[in-house]
User: Fold these one by one.
Assistant:
Number 1:
Amino acid sequence: MAITHTYTLTLADQDKATLRTAAYGAVSLMAAAGTAGSPHRIATRGSIALTSATGQVGYVLAEKSKIEGLNGRSVAELADQVLPALTATMRLLGRQDPAEADNFRTTVTLAVEESVRAVKGEPGPVMTEMIRKITGALDAA
């Protein structure tokens, strides 16, 4: 028996770009905050978690396109792009398909958690604060 799912999302190219910036940007913020681990390893683990996403969110994250807004010269510039993108994506998905909003939140949260696993021991205060900011942006919608 074939299982099909009808997606209810209608995302413009800009909406998809914002979603990708939000998700991959959260991983980039974690890499920048990972003072006790390898930024490369942190980013790799988080990105692998994002590529494992399912549903419409998974399809958007799997699209091969340039991700805008992740070339800030400082963590502050990066956060100025990523944190509002997280909130905007949650609002957009929440209006169109609450299940996909939950899927996006879970996907980003898992990527953040996977990023932390690249660090030996517990995450330090810098990473912990970045997790708080990312979670706050997801919940602000």
Number 2:
Amino acid sequence: MAITLTDQDKNTLRTAAYGAVTLLSAAGAVAGSPHRIATQGSLALSSATGQVGHVLAENSKIAHLDGKSVAEIADHVLPALTSAMSLLTKQDPAEADNFRSTVLVAVEAAVRPKKGEPSPVMAEMVRKITAALDAA
């Protein structure tokens, strides 16, 4: 089923998905390699399918992802995740599931360390991202 998304809706989806990766990268600057985190997460997002994949593939500027702190970025990204899930769930629950799984795959790819477990900082950020996705 094709869903109808406004430009604002598409911006919300992109802010949420790429923002989750940006948030992890900013948190990872404390704990590891922010460039590796951003690269792995972005590559995972580029493999999205369905209408979500088409929206994420659009090349447009995403506002509010250049915050001066992790908290400032989170203030925009976490509500965007919840909003994205709400608007997709209302129109097409299957596409909402697609978005959720796409973001979680990107998060998993981003936080996967070369060896060992993700740091407690990264694990907590993943928990916050997942909670925002599930709050809708």
